[in-house]
Amino acid sequence: MSNALNVYCDESCHLEHDGKPVMVLGAVWCSSMQVRDAHLNLRNLKRAYGLADDFEMKWTKVSPAKLDFYRAALDFFFRSEHLHFRALVVPDKTILDHPGHGQTHDDWYYKMYFRMLEAVIQPDAKHHIFLDYKDTRGAAKARKLHEVLCNSVYDFGQKTVASMA
Fold first, then answer.
1. What are phi and psi of 148, to 5 degrees?
2. What is the C-alpha separation between 150 and 146, in angstroms, rounded?
3. Is residue 15 within 8 Å of 22, Cβ to Cβ?
4. Separation of alpha carbons 142 and 106, rounded Å
5. Mean pLDDT of 92-102
6. Helices (H), the chain
7. What is the widest separation between alpha-carbon atoms in the chain?
């Protein structure tokens, strides 16, 4: 299994009582061998638009002053044959009935991460998944998610879903 993939995950508006109904979980992935090139291309793009190398691209930072940069970043992403994207959109998390389903919002959040990631897993590849921990219990929840993802593809030796950090 020489085909190793890095999967980078993030979320937006994931807290139960953040006043925002929509929640998005997303993943960007590429071959582990392509990570450095993608990183360098994005760094050069930031520099071309006068942004610091460590400028974090976030939808909350889109502004008229940075609009051209974000358009160029989107163009770079969609032109790249090496970068892939998947998102799970929850249109209205305020109508969820967690107690009625015997779960907490936190449990549901990780179930949704499973649903988003299960379609990313390729049986002939080795995956290194990077989550953005949402709280101090994130590491334990990520370990459980890793276990469930592995079990779902009969990967009991953790060769397909090699790591989750």
1. -65, -40
2. 6
3. no
4. 12
5. 95
6. 35-48, 67-79, 105-118, 138-152
7. 52
- Contact yes or no for 160/125 (Cβ under 8 A): yes
Q: Does residue 7 surpass a pLDDT of 70?
A: yes
Please state, as a whole number, how many other Cβ atoms lie within 10 Å of the Cβ of residue 50: 10
Q: Are 93 and 22 in contact (CB under 8 A)?
A: yes
Residue with tokens 């993608």: 38
Q: H or E segment at 88? A: strand 84-90
25-65: per-residue pLDDT in tens? Answer: 999 999 999 999 999 999 999 999 999 999 998 878 889 99
Whole-number Å distance between alpha carbons of 139 and 108: 16
13 within 8 A of 112, measured Cβ to Cβ: no
* pTM for the structure as a whole: 0.90
Residues 11, 26 contacting (CB under 8 angstroms): yes
d(CA 98, CA 31): 37
* The two structure tokens encoding residue 26: 């997303």
Question: What's the Rg (C-alpha) of the chain?
Answer: 17
